[in-house]
Amino acid sequence: MAAADDTSPARRHLRVVGAPATEPGPAVIAAACRGDREAAGRVLAHVLPLARRLVAAVVRRSDRIDDVVQQALMEVLEALPSFEGRTSVRGWARTIVLRVAFRSLRKEARISRVTVDAVDPDTLRATLHEPVGDALPRPVADYLAALSVRHREVLVLHHALGYTIPEIADTLGISPNTVKSRLLHARRNVRRLVRRDLRFGAGGGSRMPTS
């Protein structure tokens, strides 16, 4: 998708957010798809609170949130003709917003530390399918930080945010089989790192090897 400039229709619509944020009906959706600025503003006003909440939870950088939210709203507006009304507008837009947010993280080659910390240690231990005692040798974040971004993001989405395989695929724009493969490799790499620490010790804070 080409980047929009300040005079593009999508960017102009982003300023029309003062309309009531109620669920847009079919007539409003149709009008927005035809380029009606007021209708588009109503759609975006409805999606904006959700977009800000999701982007803030994923990106966590105050200097990036507004830019990512704006990009997400632009992509929601551009994708609006594909909305079939099977779910609420916000439910439909959620996947688009999250995809934009995680794409932003991938560009920065990182996953939010707050999101990483949301992975429960007991949940991660349960994925290893082997006894590791009462606690992991290192903090969960250390093991996740040692993973590649692609492996880390699927592990976090699945085990921290509770996403299903199809939901992760939709969010990241990849196939379900690719999600399964990345999860398999992520778990295998974490298992290898935990085994190493159990055998040789955590090393008093020594750096983790990356995978």
In short:
The chain is mainly alpha-helical and 211 residues long. It is 65% helix and 0% strand.
Structure description:
- It is built from eleven helices and no strands.
- With 211 residues, it is an all-alpha fold.
- It has two domains: 9-107, Rna Polymerase Sigma Factor, Chain: A (Orthogonal Bundle); 113-200, Arc Repressor Mutant, subunit A, CATH 1.10.10.10.
- α3 crosses α5 (89-107) and α9 packs across α11.
- The radius of gyration is 20 Å and the shape is elongated.
- Residues 1-20, 109-114 and 204-208 have low confidence and may be disordered.
Specify the CATH architecture of the largest domain: Orthogonal Bundle
Provide the succession of SSEs: HHHHHHHHHHH
Shape: elongated
How many domains?
2
Structural class: mainly alpha
Fraction of residues in β-strands: under 5%
Number of DSSP helical runs: 11
Instruction: Please summarize the sheet with the most strands.
Output: none
Cα-based radius of gyration, to the nearest Å: 20 Å
Q: Describe the oligomeric state of these chains in a short phrase.
A: single chain
